[in-house]
Write a structure and sequence with these properties.
Belongs to the glycerate kinase type-1 family. The structure is a single chain. The protein has helices spanning 16-30, 48-56, 91-94, 112-123, 143-148, 204-208, 216-237, 249-259, 268-276, 278-281, 304-314, 351-356, 358-378, and strands spanning 2-5, 35-38, 59-66, 72-79, 85-89, 128-132, 152-154, 173-175, 187-191, 264-266, 287-295, 319-326, 340-343. By secondary structure, it is an alpha/beta fold. It has two domains: 2-40 and 286-378, 3-Layer(aba) Sandwich (Rossmann fold), CATH 3.40.50.10350; 48-268, Alpha-Beta Complex (Glycerate kinase, domain 2), CATH 3.90.1510. It has a six-stranded mixed β-sheet, sandwiched between helices. The chain has a five-stranded parallel β-sheet with strand order 2-1-11-12-13. Strands 7-8 form a two-stranded antiparallel ribbon. The chain is elongated and about 80 Å long. The two termini are 16 Å apart.
């Protein structure tokens, strides 16, 4: 019997590979002869680098970069086994987790460090990029990233505007004279799961500004500045971008990647499914296990378990999902390829207890479920 194990991480507790290992332990506890295929997954956000590096026997590259407040930190990205593909999580250099609550200020935070990661990968010979742009702390329209690659953002006096979003309204010209043209020879895929435009009530500033530290007054300033910046982008690169779905992702990073480097924005899970060769690995599988920290109605909007279930459903393979918590709306998932959704929690416990014991809880849940499944199979 072949069983494919393709979970996301249980964030704050186990990586995707650790979840897969724990599920495997539970299954082999029942029957050591199971054929197990482990595929640690992600949806383009946190854990994407680790998952794809693990799947391709690649390596994690550590780099000195600037954080959102331009302080020196150690960032990282993944180089896949082909030595030509870099996987970058924007959050590793320009993410909210790098800031204290009191430090959040999207008027000043910069995406410069993300550009440094890209530049380092170019220096190492990478020709293909997968860039996850979730979890950013910035609202600078990707200008910091472009600065790290050699672009200059000038006002009417031909002086560079400050880092961050505060002076985007003073932008007059984008100078690409010293821009690193190697990137134009690369294939760039961007993992982006939002459809927000650059500006307006559904744009980057109003939708994502509050979580980055913006109040109502600041959101208005940020939006006005991004709109001005968007018009300069469109005029400079002769490409409509302001209203393109996804342009507002990561504080406007989507717009910069679309306009300047002609990147393709795609659902994160679709990129990971393709890069992991999930469809091929599902061939001749009898059962699939997937999961993530929490499963609810939002799972169907491009989360890892939904992507896995969708692929398995094409091949008529039953799918079981494990989760730390099960929220509202999961009943709709049974119509979308899921055959069973189970919580790993086996008794009343605190969140801290479940996190501390997550590995054992996953293992034992997998053991109980496979007992039930195999018992049913025997009685057919």
């Amino acid at each position: 019997m072949k069983i494919v194990i393709a979970p996301d991480s249980f964030k704050g507790s186990l990586t995707a590979l650790e979840v897969a290992n724990s599920i495997e332990e539970g299954l082999l506890k029942y029957n050591k002869d199971f054929i197990i295929e482990k595929i640690p997954m992600a949806d383009g956000g946190e854990g994407t680098v680790e998952s794809l590096v693990s799947l391709t026997n690649g390596e994690i590259i550590t780099v000195e970069v600037k954080d959102p407040l331009l302080r020196e930190i150690k960032g990282f990205y993944g180089m896949l086994g082909d030595k030509e593909t870099a996987v970058i999580e924007m959050a590793a250099a320009s993410g909210l987790p790098l800031l204290k609550e009191s430090e959040k200020n999207p008027l000043v935070t910069s995406s410069y460090g993300t550009g440094q990661l890209i530049r380092d990968a170019l220096d190492r010979g990478c020709k293909n990029f997968i860039i996850g742009i979730g979890g950013s702390a910035t609202n600078d329209g990707g200008t910091g990233m472009l600065k790290a690659l050699g672009a200059k953002f000038l006002n009417k006096d031909n002086k560079e505007i400050s880092d961050g979003a505060a002076e985007l309204n003073q932008l007059y010209k984008i100078d690409m004279t010293n821009f690193d043209e190697r990137i134009f020879e690369c294939d760039i895929k961007v993992a982006c799961d939002v459809q927000n435009p650059l500006c307006g009530e559904n744009g980057a500033s109003f939708i994502f500004g509050p979580q980055k530290g913006a109040d109502e007054a600041m959101m208005k300033v940020l939006d006005d500045n991004l709109c001005h910046y968007g018009k300069i982008l469109e005029n400079t690169f002769n490409l409509e971008v302001i209203n393109v779905p996804g342009a507002g992702a990561a504080g406007g990073m989507g717009a910069a990647l679309i306009a300047v480097v002609k990147a393709k924005l795609q659902r994160g899970i679709d990129i990971i499914i393709r890069e992991s060769k999930l469809s091929e690995k599902l061939e001749e599988a009898d059962l699939v296990f997937t999961g993530e920290g929490r499963i609810d109605y939002q799972t169907k909007f491009g989360k890892t378990p939904f992507g896995v279930a969708s692929e398995a459903n094409k091949k008529n393979i039953p799918v079981i999902a494990l989760a730390g918590g099960i929220g509202e709306g999961t009943d709709t998932l049974y119509e979308l390829g899921f055959d069973g959704i189970f919580s790993i929690v086996d008794k009343p416990m605190t969140l801290d207890e479940s996190i501390k014991n997550c590995s054992v809880l996953v293992k034992e849940a997998a053991f109980r479920i496979i007992n039930l499944y195999m018992s049913h199979e025997r009685k057919k």
